[in-house]
Design brief:
The protein has 65 residues and is an alpha+beta fold. It starts with 20 loop residues before the first strand and ends with a helix. A three-stranded antiparallel beta sheet has the order 1-2-3. It has a domain of 44 residues. A hairpin with a 5-residue loop joins β2 and β3. The chain is built from two helices and three strands.
Length: 65
């Protein structure tokens, strides 16, 4: 899929390269998790080490909060 909207202000970007996002949980600014069909879960947090997020925090932890 072409990235036509890349670097164009005001347009949405396709960050999943055409893959379908099945779930999104946004708790607050810069703290979210998303599940994409056929790929691994993506978890983002601010001020928490990536190793801690990758090893201990799960997608279900975001849903429980």
């Amino acid at each position: 899929m072409l990235l036509r909207n890349k670097k164009v202000p005001g347009l949405m970007k396709d960050e999943n390269n055409g893959a379908v996002m099945t779930e999104f949980i946004g708790l607050r600014s810069k703290m979210y998790a998303l599940r994409v069909h056929g790929k691994r879960d993506t978890k983002k947090t601010k001020d928490v080490c990536r190793i801690v997020v990758g090893r201990t925090i799960t997608f279900d932890d975001y849903a429980r909060v």
